[in-house]
Design brief:
This protein is mainly alpha-helical. The protein has 15 helices and 2 strands. It is 49% helix and 4% strand. It has a two-stranded parallel sheet with strand order 1-2. The two termini are 17 Å apart.
Length: 257
């Protein structure tokens, strides 16, 4: 979504600066906040900012459009598992001033075992935003606001299935006009393989905390979470999310693109 916004704003596949410089991740605390805000204030172009904070944790301003990207939670969790393995956690700790661990860090379990524990784990959604309760809190809050004129919900699966259509929809909502002859190169640049090829410029890694920037663009597939679970385990997952979110949100979230 960051890349799509950049392409719509600049209307060229070759951005004028690395994506993370053009669009800072506001709550990624590896960069000093004052430096991020100064960079934003100096930008002459239309600003687009990344955050993982739910809407109820943000200042809501009618002049701002809030684009909330949802993904099938099981697929999101599998991506989270692999992204976590790609972080240089010692560097993150140093940059954020965190305390050194007082005991050896245990290796993570295999992805299937980890996913099952993620489904079942009880967590305060306000404290653990990446937990299943945290994800459903985030999406449920956005879902309640979906009829507000400056709130846009987008599903990852719809982007994967019809990238051009979703980009044109977003351009309309953002009141950005793109010449017809420019669309093909913008759509190609927003594709997964193109972004992976330019990982050094497009990965969100100004602070150098990723072990491998190309690994940030791992697969981009849908259905990877479901494929790890049995029918009984999938039913357990559905019962769990049924207690965490309204039925109409769950229907939208889990529908086929």
């Amino acid at each position: 979504m960051q890349m799509i916004c950049a392409l719509l704003v600049f209307q060229t596949p070759r951005l004028p600066a690395p994506l993370a410089e053009l669009s800072p991740w506001l709550d990624w605390l590896v960069e000093p906040r004052d430096e991020v805000c100064a960079r934003l204030r100096a930008q002459p172009h239309r600003r687009f900012i990344k955050t993982h904070t739910p809407l109820d944790g943000l200042p809501l301003d009618r002049r701002v459009t809030y684009v909330v990207v949802a993904r099938q939670p099981l697929d999101m969790a599998v991506s989270l598992y692999h992204q976590g393995a790609n972080l240089d956690r010692e560097r993150v700790r140093r940059l954020t001033g965190g305390a050194a661990p007082d005991r050896p860090v245990r290796p993570r379990p295999p992805v299937r075992e980890w996913l099952l524990s993620w489904i079942d784990r009880e967590a305060d959604p306000r404290e653990q935003l990446d937990s299943l309760p945290g994800v459903m809190w985030h999406l449920s809050d956005a879902w309640r606001r979906r009829d507000e004129p400056n709130v846009v919900l987008v599903r990852y699966e719809d982007l994967a299935a019809d990238l051009e259509g979703q980009m044109r929809r977003l351009a309309g909502l953002l009141e950005i006009t793109v010449p017809d002859e420019v669309w093909p190169q913008l759509v190609e640049a927003a594709g997964f393989e193109s972004m992976r090829a330019y990982a050094d410029e497009l990965a969100p890694d100004r602070a150098g905390v990723l072990k491998d920037r190309r690994a940030f663009f791992r697969q981009g597939m849908t259905g990877s979470g479901r494929s790890l679970l049995t029918d009984e385990e999938l039913a357990r997952y559905r019962r769990r999310v049924g207690r965490l979110a309204p039925p109409d949100l769950l229907e939208w979230l889990h529908q086929e693109p």
